[in-house]
Design goal:
single chain, alpha/beta, seven-stranded mixed β-sheet, four-stranded antiparallel β-sheet, 47% helix, 16% strand
Length: 536
């Protein structure tokens, strides 16, 4: 189901009910940029803390333009799940002091265009959202000075509306009513505020759930207390409306249902930044707070990496772990029959678009695909070691018990570690030791591009310059590292050795020299001090 700000008021209850009824919820996001700066490109030198800083800058600069939510509901008394999938366009609305910046990266927009992203729906119909801080700020204004919420409303429209109402009031009697017109909900509520502030003798009524008409009625006399109460109520309705997708985000968090995604570290940071609050300063704080929001997270990228060898041995050759490839393999006849009693997976009535279409990189479809892959992998992990005679339909709680070793393990692309653990300490790095590259000729400077090309022939590598004659090399595989060491053992121009902070880090060397100088000075002072005392 496609969701915009136009149909969200009607579909909100169904979305929240889907979340409540589900066994687990899969998500995916599409966003307007990938890297805040050129220096923020993924690197094998990245620790989890370093990667967090890079992704944090990206999440602060760019925005989510589409989010997919796919709630998988178990059909009672059957071995079947049905997906309630929502493809939701998002666009932040400006209101009073809240006015988000919308920035984008050309390459990301080109990518979205390639997959037929509808930018008209994004800008004209995107559903709004607020962080907790933004909501509190607007609630305070709604409760104290509601008219602040309307200060950025189009001045020409305000003037035209006031003139029309003033003309009608000049001949209206107490009790007379007039239908002012039909409005979108937000515009109707803001118009109510403007009219009540300009004409305290008016009573306004906005019929949201029927005709969307704004009706005004002349009262016999002004009532300031009643007027302020009405304006506060209207102001809070405006804030409720602006919350938009944040209501869905909070419902997912409050449900404490397992949250599923594919390679979802970026998705988690973006959701925190846009729907919760600005990302914390430290990576450790982020892990603690995201774990409180979503205590059970499963990454299908990580699961597929862990299960690839077992699936190959079981007869399903998995060579790639990107989402489309996993979906293709696991939805094939061989994938469904990899182990017996794998559950049927379908679409709920009214949510069957993806039964006939497979629009890759549409957030709703990718969320559904992640949920589908997760369910197939969960059953494989739970049933693969069970004898054929003992295999039976499994309850989702049994899946969760078998999946305990994989919970909160989130894949991290091209970094020092293969994944991060949102619920505990991150794993140690299993990458090979860095290599130290030196130019053997004093006059020859090293070039990053040439080094990457030269050593990239052996393995995936990243280069980090120390100075013009020295560089660090991070190699993805042990085999590649050994091949490089062997090939450059007697190279005429380059020296390649394993990196040692003691010998190769300028900071460590300076620290050691500083310590030696200090300790030497202390020894000299002690010697001459004691000699001076003895001579007395």
């Amino acid at each position: 189901m496609e969701v915009t700000r136009h149909n969200f008021p009607y579909e909100e209850h169904r979305i929240l009910q889907s979340i409540s009824d589900s066994s687990f919820i899969a998500i995916d996001t599409e966003f307007t940029g990938l890297h805040a700066t050129e220096e923020d490109i993924n690197s094998l030198f990245d620790s989890p803390e370093k990667r967090y800083e890079k992704l944090k800058r990206m999440a602060m600069q760019y925005t989510i333009c589409q989010i997919g939510v796919s709630a998988f509901v178990k059909v009672p008394k059957s071995n079947k799940y049905v997906a309630h999938t929502y493809n939701i366009y998002l666009f932040p609305r400006s209101m009073s002091s809240v006015d988000a910046r919308f920035t984008c990266q050309a390459s990301s927009i080109e990518f979205l265009c390639k997959y037929s992203f509808d930018f008209n729906k994004l800008f004209y119909q995107g559903l709004s959202y607020l962080t907790t801080d933004q909501e509190q700020e607007l609630r305070k204004q709604a409760d104290t000075k509601p008219m602040l919420l309307a200060r950025y409303m189009d001045k020409d429209i305000q003037r035209e509306t006031r003139n029309s109402v003033a003309e009608w009031l000049s001949g209206a009697k107490p009790g007379d009513e007039m239908v002012l017109g039909q409005y979108e909900e937000l515009e109707g509520l803001l118009t109510q505020l403007v009219l009540q502030d300009s004409f305290p003798i008016l009573n306004t009524r906005f019929d949201v759930n029927s005709t969307w008409q704004l009706t005004i009625k002349r009262m016999a006399e002004e009532n300031e207390d009643s007027l302020h109460t009405d304006q506060v109520a209207i102001g809070n309705k405006i804030v409720d409306l602006l919350l938009g997708f944040t209501k869905v985000f909070r419902a997912i968090s409050e449900s404490k249902k397992p949250l599923i995604g594919h390679n979802l570290l970026t998705d988690l940071l973006l959701m925190f930044q846009k729907f919760q609050n600005p990302l914390p300063g430290s990576y450790a704080t982020f892990k603690r707070e995201i774990h409180q929001l979503f205590p059970k997270v499963y990454d299908t990228k990580f699961l597929a990496f862990e299960m690839r060898k077992s699936m190959n041995e079981a007869g399903l050759p998995i060579s790639q772990t990107f989402l489309a490839s996993l979906l293709e393999h696991l939805s094939s006849l061989e994938g469904k029959q990899l182990v017996l009693m794998s559950p049927d997976i379908g679409h709920e009535v009214g949510f069957d678009k993806y039964g006939t279409e497979a629009p890759l990189h549409e957030a709703g479809f990718d969320a559904y695909a992640a949920g589908y892959v997760f369910l197939r992998l969960a059953h494989f992990i739970s049933a693969k070691d069970t004898s054929g005679m003992a295999i039976r339909p499994l309850d989702f709680r049994e899946y969760e018990w078998k999946l305990q070793p994989y919970i909160n393990k989130v894949n991290i692309i091209r970094a020092m570690v293969s994944h991060v653990d949102l619920g505990g300490p991150d794993p140690p790095s299993l990458r090979p030791q860095w290599l130290h590259i030196s130019s053997k000729r004093l006059t020859q400077s090293l070039d990053v591009g040439k080094l990457a090309q030269t050593f990239g022939a052996f393995s995936s590598v990243d280069v980090q310059m120390i100075d013009r004659r020295h560089a660090l090399l991070a190699v993805a595989t042990y085999g590649g590292s050994k091949d490089i060491m062997r090939a450059f053992r007697n190279h005429q121009k380059l020296s390649v050795v394993k990196y040692s902070p003691l010998y190769h880090s300028p900071r460590v060397r300076m620290g050691l020299w500083g310590a030696l100088l200090v300790s030497g000075a202390v020894c000299v002072w002690a010697f001459f001090g004691s000699h001076s005392k003895s001579s007395r």
